[in-house]
Amino acid sequence: MEEIKKGRWYHYKGNEYEVLYNARHSETLEPLVIYRALYGDNGVWVRPSSMWSETVTYNGAQVPRFTYTGDMDIQVRPEEHGDYRETENLTREAFWNAFQPGCDEHYLLHIMRSDSSFLPELNYVALKGGKIIGNIVYTKSCIVDDNGVQHEVITFGPVSVLPDYQKSGVGARLIFHTLKLAREMGCRAVIILGHPEYYPRFGFRRAREFGLATEHGETFDPFMALELNPGSLSRLSGVFHEADIYKINSADASEFDKTFPFKEKKVIDTPL
Fold first, then answer.
1. Residues 6 or more apart from 170 whose CB is under 8 A from it?
2. Which of the four CATH numbers 3.10.450.50, 3.40.630.30, 1.20.1050.90, 3.30.470.10 does domain 74-251 have?
3. What is the domain partition of the chain in residue ranges?
4. In this structure, what DSSP letter does residue 209 have?
5. What is the pLDDT of residues 188-234, one digit of tens each?
6. Does 259 have pLDDT greater than 80?
7. How far, in Å, CA of 257 to CA of 249, rounded?
8. pLDDT in tens, 98-128
9. CATH architecture, domain defined by 7-68
10. What counts of helices (H) and strands (E) characterise the chain?
11. What per-residue confidence (pLDDT) applies to 272?
């Protein structure tokens, strides 16, 4: 049978669990998962393994019943001032040559913290063995409706994970943790530009389903939205405006990058 990873898992309704063992029913040989709750009295329960790969409809979106969010020894806490350089460096490592020669995301993080749009309450890092391996940050943004009225929403990014820890649940852990905090803070919705095959697991849907468009009138698939409370985007069609801080000056970013150790930028071939 395909074993379910041991470690921390997020349930789509918001609770978290630790998978302890994979087992089989003594008579039917059905694959089972033994797990414990990470809340309340930490009760130990059993479910069929098949339920760990199911999807369910929740708030209008298809989401996994359970999502893996990493090893149990990964900790999440707010970023501290003394973390800044380390976090900027991990962001550089995470994005280097990913979407362009080099990257600008570490410079964006550097200038974002002092911007009026920045939300320090949602600035979190993930650690393993005391080492920072991931970071997520948020800014205020807005939707301007058809009557010209502004409605505040929020946006996250960059979400950074060191290359050695990517695809191991660290990013998901940071996203689920901060989305829960944003909901508790009373934030209305989260609007992002992200991979349309990845972000639906968190409940994101194509923004056009809510009648939203970008400043340029676009409604492409990576433009995505999440209601933090059901119906929070209903009857709110309009234009999304991200914070101006995302409009990076490439020359300033290049100068900032010179304060880090040299890294070779990928050469992009262009057809003749």
1. 69, 70, 74, 126, 133, 134, 161
2. 3.40.630.30
3. 7-68, 74-251
4. G
5. 999 999 999 999 999 999 999 999 999 999 899 999 999 998 899 98
6. yes
7. 12
8. 989 999 999 999 999 999 999 999 999 999 9
9. Roll (2.30)
10. 4, 16
11. 46
Beta strand 16-24 pairing with 7-11: antiparallel
**So what's the pLDDT on residue 71?**
94
User: Per DSSP, what are the bridge partners of residue 126?
Assistant: 76, 134
pTM: 0.93
Are 193 and 158 in contact, with CB atoms under 8 Å apart? no
Containing H/E element for 90? helix 84-95
Q: How many other C-beta atoms can be found within 10 angstroms of the C-beta atom of residue 206?
A: 16
Residue type, 14: G
What is the residue whose two structure tokens read 């898992």? Answer: 9
CA–CA separation, 134 and 178 (whole Å): 13
In sequence order, what DSSP letters do the residues of 136-155 get, joined into one string?
A: EEEEEEEEEETTS-EEEEEE
| CA dist., res. 103 & res. 96, Å (int) | 5
> Long-range contacts made by residues 260-269, C-beta under 8 angstroms, separation at least 24?
260/89, 260/92, 260/106, 263/92, 263/96, 263/102, 265/97, 265/101, 265/102, 266/97, 266/101, 266/102, 267/101, 268/101
